[in-house]
Design brief:
The structure holds 2 protein chains of 2 kinds. Chain A is mainly α. Helix content of chain A is 74%, strand content 0%. Chain B is an all-alpha fold. Chain B is built from 15 helices and 2 strands. Classes of the chains: A mainly alpha, B mainly alpha.
Chain lengths: 409, 332
C-alpha cells in the first residue's frame, strides 16, 4: 500500500467515524407531516406529481409482511434510503479521489470533509429526514458516478425520469450537476464521444422538461374527486393520525397556487436570506474567487464556456427561490452543487480546476487565521432546515421579529 | 508588530485572529443563547436577576478575550500557530457553555470570570496579591469555586513559586487558600452553600460521551507525559500539582451527576492549563504540544478535526434533553 493509499484509507476511516457521530448527534427520530403526506400520493389517483414514492410504498406493502403504509413503515423506508445516501456519497467521494491526480489528494480530502459537514447532517434532522430530496440526491450522484466512470451512461435517462416521478423539483435543485457535467463533456471532451453526450444531454433534458410541464399543468384533472381520500390517507400515515400537509395536497392534487398561502414563510426567507449571505460571505468569497480565477485564466474558448456554464449552473434553483419557501434546502443544494462540481472537475483531471484548487489551498494556508475558522464556522450552520435556513438564522429572525418589538414595548 | 501594554507582543495576525474569534463568539451567542433563565442557587438574589446575568455573561466574554489576548500576546513567533489552535479549542467549550438555558446564569460564570482575571494577573506578573481578593469574592458568590477555579489559581501560584523560587508566590498562595476557606465558611454560615446541579445528561449518555471523547485522553497522555522527563524534583511536583488540580471539580460534579459540567471542567481546566503554561513560555508545555502536533499530523488526515470535533457536542448535545445520544442508540 502506497503512502497516498494509506492516507486515503485513514481519511475514509475518519469520515466514517464522523458520519456515525453526525447520525448520533443530529438524528431527531421524527418525520414531519410534509414528508409523510407525500406518501399518500400514488398512481391509483392518476398519473400525478410525486406519485412514485407512494406507489412504491404500496407495492412494498403488498410484497412484504410488514405494514409499510404507516408512520413506522415510512420511518423504516426513510432510514434505509438515508443509509443508502451515505453509501452513495462515500462511493462518490472514493470515485473522485481515485480519479483525481495524486498531488491534489490532500486538497480534495479537505473539500470532501467540508462538504460532509453540511451533507451528513442534512437529511437527519426532523425537517428533512425522509424528504424526497434525499432520493433525488442519490439519483444525481449515482448518475454522476456513471458518467465519471463512462460506464452504463444511458442509465442516466431512466434514472432522471425516476427522479422526476419522485419529485419534479429535481429539475431545479439537482439535475444541474448532471447537466453541467454532460455539457462539460460535450464542450471539452473528445470529438469521438461528443455526439454520444449531445444525445444523452438532449434526451435527458427533453424527458425531464416534458415530465415537469406535464406535472405542473396537466396532472390535476380529478383533484377534487380524490381530495378527501388523499387527506384521509395522509392522516393515517402521520405520527399522531391527525397531521397532514395541506399546502402540499392543495398544490399537487388540486393544482392550486400556494404562493400567498405561504406568504408568512416568504417573509421568513426575506429576512433570513440577506443575513445568510452576509454570514456565509467568507465561503461565497472563496467559491466566487475560485470560479472567477478559473474562468479568467482559461485561454481555450470552449473550456471557458464550460466553466461559465458550471459557474452559473446553480441558477436553476432561482425559480424555486422565487416561488417556494424552503431556503434551507435550496441553500444546501447550491452549496452541494458548487463543491460537487469542483470535485467532479478534479475527478475529470481538469487542469484549470486542479491549478485553482491548489491556489485556493495555498491561499488558505497563507491566511492561517482564516482557515482555522472556516471549518469551525461551518458547524454553526448545520443542519440546514427547511423554510428556516438554519438555527443560527432562525435566531436572527427571532431577534428581529420577536425579541426587538417585545423589548421596545 | 506592536509592543502593547504589559509586554504583550501583538502582531497583525494576532489582531486578525482575535477579531475573527470575536465574530465567531457573536455567532455562537446567536446560535446557543436560549433566552431562558432558570433558577440557580445564588448567595445574593440580585445575582439571579436577568439583567445582572446578561451583564456578567458579557463581562465573562470580555475577560475571556482578555485572557486569550494575553496568551496570544505572550507567546513568541514560532509558537503562535499552536496558540491559535489552543485558543480555538478552548473556545469550543467556553463560548457556548454559559449561554445554554441550563447553565445561563449559574454562579459558575462568576467563578470563571474571577478565575480568568486571576490567571491573567499571574501570567502578567502584575498585582498578584489581588488574586487572593478575587478568590475570596468568588468563594462568597460561588462556594464550589474552591474546587474548580480556586484549585487552578493555587496550583499556578505553586508552579510560579517553584519555577521562580520566590517566597512571594508561596505567601500569595497561602493567602488565597485562607481567603477561599473564609469565603466558603461565610457561604456556609449564611446558608447559601447549596450546590447547583443540573442533571441534563444521564450516566449512560456520559459513558457514551467518554467513549466518543476518548481520543483526547490519548492526546493528553502524549502531551503531558513529557512534562516529567528531565526536570528537577521540585518542578515534577509542580507539574503533578497542576495535573491533579483538575480532579476535585471533575470528581465533585461527576459524583453529583452533573455530567455536562464534568465534561466542561475536564476540558476547560486542562486546556486553560496548557494555554497558561504556553503563555508563561514553559518549555515542557511547548515540547509536549509539539510532540502532540506531530502525532496529530501523522494520524489525522484533516488535523483541524481535532479542534472542531467537540463542537458537535457543545452544548446542544450534552444539555439538550431531546437530542441525547441514548435516544439514537436505544430509541426514545
Amino acid at each position: 500500500m502506497t503512502m497516498n493509499e494509506k492516507e486515503n484509507r485513514n481519511f475514509f476511516v475518519l469520515l466514517g467515524v464522523f458520519a456515525i457521530v453526525c447520525v448520533l448527534r443530529y438524528y431527531d427520530h421524527f418525520i414531519v407531516s410534509v414528508n409523510t403526506t407525500v406518501f399518500a400520493f400514488s398512481y391509483k389517483l392518476g398519473f400525478i406529481s410525486r406519485g412514485l414514492s407512494g406507489t412504491a410504498l404500496r407495492v412494498l406493502n403488498v410484497l412484504f409482511p410488514y405494514d409499510f403504509m404507516s408512520y413506522d413503515g415510512i420511518g423504516l423506508v426513510s432510514k434505509v434510503v438515508t443509509i443508502l445516501f451515505f453509501v452513495i456519497l462515500f462511493v462518490f467521494y472514493a470515485t473522485c479521489l481515485k480519479k483525481c491526480v495524486k498531488e491534489v489528494h490532500q486538497n480534495a480530502r479537505c473539500l470532501i470533509f467540508f462538504l460532509s459537514i453540511f451533507a451528513f447532517p442534512m437529511f437527519l434532522s426532523a425537517e428533512n429526514f425522509g424528504r424526497l430530496d434525499v432520493y433525488l440526491l442519490i439519483i444525481v450522484i449515482l448518475s454522476c458516478i456513471l458518467v465519471l466512470y463512462e460506464k452504463f451512461e444511458w442509465f442516466i435517462v431512466p434514472l432522471s425520469v425516476v427522479a422526476m416521478l419522485i419529485h419534479p423539483g429535481y429539475v431545479f435543485m439537482d439535475i444541474n450537476i448532471l447537466l453541467v457535467l454532460l455539457l462539460y463533456k460535450i464542450l471539452v471532451g473528445s470529438e469521438k464521444k461528443r455526439k454520444k453526450y449531445i444525445a444523452l444531454f438532449a434526451v435527458t433534458f427533453f424527458a425531464v422538461s416534458a415530465l415537469f410541464l406535464y406535472f405542473e399543468f396537466f396532472s390535476h384533472p380529478q383533484g377534487l374527486n380524490v381530495y378527501e381520500e388523499v387527506v384521509a390517507t395522509a392522516k393515517s400515515l402521520s405520527d399522531n393520525g391527525q397531521n397532514y400537509h395541506d399546502h402540499l395536497i392543495n398544490h399537487d392534487i388540486l393544482g392550486e397556487d400556494v404562493f400567498w398561502a405561504e406568504w408568512d414563510w416568504h417573509i421568513v426567507n426575506f429576512i433570513e436570506f440577506p443575513i445568510f449571505v452576509v454570514l456565509f460571505s467568507p465561503y461565497i468569497y472563496l467559491v466566487g474567487r475560485f470560479y472567477w480565477n478559473l474562468i479568467q485564466k482559461e485561454q481555450e474558448r470552449m473550456k471557458k464556456g464550460a466553466y461559465i456554464i458550471i459557474a452559473l449552473g446553480a441558477g436553476t434553483i432561482l425559480p424555486e427561490m422565487i416561488l417556494k419557501t424552503d431556503y434551507g434546502r435550496y441553500m444546501f443544494a447550491i452549496l452541494f452543487y458548487y463543491i460537487a462540481c469542483v470535485l467532479i472537475l478534479l475527478a475529470l483531471g481538469d487542469e484549470g480546476a486542479t491549478m485553482q484548487v491548489k491556489g485556493l489551498m495555498r491561499y488558505l494556508r497563507n491566511h492561517m487565521t482564516l482557515s482555522i475558522f472556516l471549518i469551525m464556522y461551518a458547524f454553526l450552520f448545520v443542519p440546514f432546515r427547511d423554510f428556516h435556513i438554519s438555527d443560527v438564522l432562525e435566531e436572527f429572525y427571532d431577534m428581529i421579529i420577536v425579541h426587538l418589538p417585545y423589548r421596545a414595548l | 508588530m506592536s509592543r502593547g501594554c504589559f509586554g504583550l507582543r501583538m502582531e497583525k495576525n494576532d489582531r486578525m485572529f482575535l477579531v475573527m474569534l470575536a465574530f465567531f463568539a457573536i455567532l455562537c451567542m446567536s446560535r446557543f443563547y436560549d433566552h431562558a433563565l432558570y433558577f440557580h442557587p445564588a448567595s445574593f438574589p440580585v445575582l439571579q436577576s436577568y439583567s445582572m446575568v446578561v451583564l456578567v455573561t458579557t463581562a465573562y466574554y470580555v475577560v475571556l478575550f482578555m485572557f486569550y489576548a494575553v496568551c496570544v500576546g505572550k507567546v513568541l513567533g514560532v509558537n503562535k500557530k499552536l496558540m491559535y489552535y489552543l485558543v480555538v479549542f478552548c473556545s469550543v467549550f467556553t463560548f457556548p457553555m454559559f449561554l445554554q438555558a441550563n447553565y445561563f446564569g449559574t454562579m459558575d460564570v462568576y467563578a470563571c470570570f474571577f478565575t480568568l482575571m486571576g490567571v491573567c494577573l499571574v501570567i502578567l506578573e502584575r498585582g498578584e496579591w489581588i488574586v487572593s481578593l478575587l478568590g475570596f469574592v468568588s468563594a462568597c458568590i460561588c462556594p464550589m469555586f474552591v474546587f474548580s477555579g480556586g484549585c487552578l489559581l493555587i496550583v499556578f501560584l505553586f508552579y510560579k513559586g517553584c519555577k521562580k523560587e520566590k517566597k512571594k508566590y508561596g505567601c500569595i498562595g497561602l493567602l488565597l487558600g485562607v481567603a477561599e476557606a473564609m469565603g466558603f465558611l461565610i457561604s456556609y454560615f449564611r446558608g447559601s452553600l447549596s450546590m447547583d446541579v443540573q442533571v441534563t445528561v444521564s450516566l449512560r449518555n456520559f459513558v457514551l460521551m467518554v467513549i466518543l471523547m476518548s481520543p483526547y485522553l490519548l492526546m493528553a497522555v502524549t502531551c503531558f507525559k513529557c512534562f516529567f522527563r528531565d526536570v528537577p524534583r521540585k518542578m515534577k511536583i509542580a507539574y503533578m500539582m497542576i495535573l491533579v488540580g483538575g480532579i476535585p471539580s471533575v470528581a465533585m460534579y461527576a459524583l453529583r451527576g452533573d455530567f455536562a459540567r464534568t465534561v466542561f471542567y475536564v476540558f476547560a481546566y486542562y486546556v486553560v492549563v496548557l494555554l497558561t503554561l504556553m503563555a508563561m513560555r514553559d518549555e515542557k508545555a511547548e515540547i509536549g504540544l509539539l510532540i502532540l502536533k506531530g502525532e496529530i499530523l501523522r494520524w489525522v488526515p484533516i488535523p483541524a478535526v481535532v479542534v472542531v470535533y467537540p463542537f458537535l457536542f457543545m452544548t446542544l448535545w450534552i444539555s439538550g434533553a431531546h437530542e441525547l445520544i441514548v435516544e439514537t442508540v436505544l430509541g426514545q
